[in-house]
Amino acid sequence: MAPTKCATCPLRSRPLFKTNTDEEIAFINEMRRGTLKFSAGAQILSQGDDDSDLYTLYSGWAFRFKELEDARRQILNILMPGDFMGFHVSPHTGAPYGIECLTEVEVCVFPKRKLWDLFRNHPGLAYDVTWLTAHEEGIVDDNLLSVGQRSGMERVATIVLAVYKRARQLDLVQDNALDFPLTQQHIADMLGMSLIHTNRVLRRLHRDGVFTLARKKLRVHDTSALRSLAAWAETPVPKRPLI
Amino acid sequence: MAPTKCATCPLRSRPLFKTNTDEEIAFINEMRRGTLKFSAGAQILSQGDDDSDLYTLYSGWAFRFKELEDARRQILNILMPGDFMGFHVSPHTGAPYGIECLTEVEVCVFPKRKLWDLFRNHPGLAYDVTWLTAHEEGIVDDNLLSVGQRSGMERVATIVLAVYKRARQLDLVQDNALDFPLTQQHIADMLGMSLIHTNRVLRRLHRDGVFTLARKKLRVHDTSALRSLAAWAETPVPKRPLI
DNA sequence: CGAGGAATTGACCGCCATCAATCATAGTGG
DNA sequence: CCACTATGATTGATGGCGGTCAATTCCTCG
Question: Can you give the residue range of the structural domain that contains A181?
Fold first, then answer.
């Protein structure tokens, strides 16, 4: 359950997140209308929606995706606690993507019409919003690099490594293991590969002892093997803002 | 040549761009340190650069890209007049991508240290910066959808259509034709395909009379054929800000 | 006119998609 | 407690889209 006060938000105390001034946190707290819960599989946002609020993912995992008419689906990036959602939605053009929950999800809700207040009176927070948007673009850049240039094996290694690092920053890793709610179909849709080929690649990495992925648990045994498999172009992440 | 005053910027008068208040334009004008010229092939920004100013592309074409160690290159998006560059560069982590010119390019230069002034005193412009960042992410989303899910033929059709529409909005199209500075290698690197396969696909579309691409000139004959080939998921663009 | 980049075409092949079937796991109702 | 069902994972067989190697032609430009 999300706390009622942003000042005591347990996310914010993680070293991953930067600090804000008390005044800024007070404003966030006041702007926050409350929280919403979604169950696994529910859509926080559907492609084409012409109205949405702004959300910060508080707990759980989700993903952002686009679909073609014939139901081919590309997952654009994975959303984890601290990620900010909904800025792209315009009433004129509608949401260019959908967001679907992988687990039960809790989000903090911010009414979009207050965004102007935020930009007007809290330039530091406005900058944070921009930073979060730019950061998400960086993730998509990385995914595009993978899908466009890396082999199947490299893609899988890259995404596993990226998720693992992100999860560790969020303190979701214990004994090199974490809860991993993606199915192989999700991984396939994220990497632009067929489900079957994705399975074969996972199987191979499993057999080689790089990591194991079974029953929604990911266990990484050999990060250095992962790194070399990934043809890794490291994109470091400094402290990130939380809104 | 860029005019010395932003108020008389010929870009701004295009219907593609939204209006700003006189005060905002005055601020942009004051923040602008001047212009820089690059020749075709020059890099405005190199992957890893730990310092850069902010730029608005005034004339010419460029592209944003990422490379792996072994020189595989993914072009992330094409940059055309009005595009904003450099926000992602942080002194701590360096530029996560490079920017290279396709033609001779002229950019307007804004010192990054004045960005705080902009956010503090001109929330409307701050919002514009965020919008531009978010919009670019939308383009990358589209490209990822293409590279991940579309066939070679569909990818080529999609990108040609997208460039054509963008060029038309910028008044670069006359008689269905425009100057098109990308080589087939660029298209290949953008679509995650080999040069040779890209050539074959282009050849086929050429033979079928959909468009012709020769001598740096793109001529589109059948946009509706393009649209159906692209399995198009239209992402409409409203008026965009210009900084 | 020569040189070098870009485009084109052919031959060959492999990674990965597709089709199909089986197995594993978990949840449900009788 | 055990069919029964649904979802997800796994494996085999086959084929095609698109990658790779190689050679030639075309353009552009000094």
Answer: 150-229
